[in-house]
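Researcher: Here's a chain I'd like modeled. Treat it as a single chain, no partners, no ligands.
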Amino acid sequence: MDIPLLLFLSITILGLNHNAEGSPFSFREATVHDIRIALDHNRLTSQELVKFYLNEIRRLNPVLNGVIEVNPDALYLAHKADQDRKARKPGSETGLAGIPILLKDNIATKDKLNTTAGSYVLLGSIVPQDAGVVKKLRKAGAIILGKASMTEWAAYRSNNVPNGWNARRGQSVDPYLKSADPCGSSTGSATSVAANMAMVTLGTETYGSILCPSSSNSVVGIKPTVGLTSRAGVVPISHRQDTVGPICRSVSDAVYVLDAIVGFDPDDAVATKKVSKYIPHGGYLKFLKSNGLKGKRLGVPRYSFVGFGNSSETLKAFEPHFHILRKRGAVLVDIVDTARFDTVVASMYNDQFKAMNVEFKLALNAYLKQLITSPVRSLADAIVFNKKHSKLERIEEYGQDTFEAAEKTHGIGRMERELLLNLTRASKNGFEKLMKENKLDALVTPAANILYAISAGGYPGINVPAGYNSNGTPYGISFGGLKGSEPKLIEIAYDYEQATKIRKPPPL
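Model: Modeled as a single isolated chain. Structure tokens:
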């Protein structure tokens, strides 16, 4: 008699790893490390793993809407991974080999999957090749499970489009509380991995789109230094701010994914060559240290909208987290006089969106023109398409004001160059100066507030689950650092995560 799939998988994982209480990890919350051991010891196959996630998608996605498309070749790819591992093919027993990953729907794949940014505008378009990060994932042996839903056009069609909504799939739902804001734009990546519809996922961030949904869905998100991961083949907003990063259930899972996707890409050569110098020899896994917080100087902007604003309630709520950080050996530096810092950040907040409108039109037009087949070839075409198909795209309800504002721009002239120069100066005079003057390893903020400080300058950040409100809504804690500081941020986040083990699966 056949053992039911779920029972079989639970048995195979049982006893492979244990938490602090000595009880085994359940399959649904197992880490990449756990799965790696099971695969390499023939206790599990990639086909069984993929079948499990496909079943979970069938069961949960009608409610959560976290997945926009499933790869019809996923089981075939899993079978191939099993054959490679059985033959001990080089690379088939390490890292992400044989492990399924869900990609945000703005990351191109040259296969049977669409790449649409959630919009009917790009449905049926054909990309010339895999995105740079997808090439690296395939080289690492990962299985592309499908595309995650997202806020349409990465929340850049209109300010009125709800977080997690797109025309193709509808509204994504926070698996912890249906009425909660799941945040965006990598909504489906966060909700899907939180609900165990995927092992690991990829998201993208321009302005909070990895950190915010990670915080709202009790998962880990790493926003890499801009250029650490290739943006080639990603539906763009701003090459100055766009970055691709992992969204996973644990810091270690996110680091496995990060290791697989970083590095030089000739199709994004300028950015990736410059930032490749920050990649540590041997990768990032060695920074998963149980004493990673010891001696770290963490800045706490107590009276800054970047940090805790003037909310004594938020400060009080985070005192237990501060206590944990201190107990683990971190030195917390209270930053009270933040008036100048806030002024600089507020200026950046307004200026970066002006710059992004110009950058978006140029970058999107270039992306659309290189497609092999596409219903549209420019932002102007996309605006017209939406008007013609207004019911499908709910244009009357949500509009396309950001599209239209970007279309009115005329490239990068003297005024735009000055604007970009001001943004660079503001980043150096704001976040960088604050970090260097206080000799900080990282800045710590509640939820995803760190994004206000790090987005315009292309700095890295990481979010870790921190707790749940009285109604069960998750919230995270975020750490941000200077360019290339991913090793420090991983050490900090991993130690905090291991000290708290706060994450719990959603009550599905």
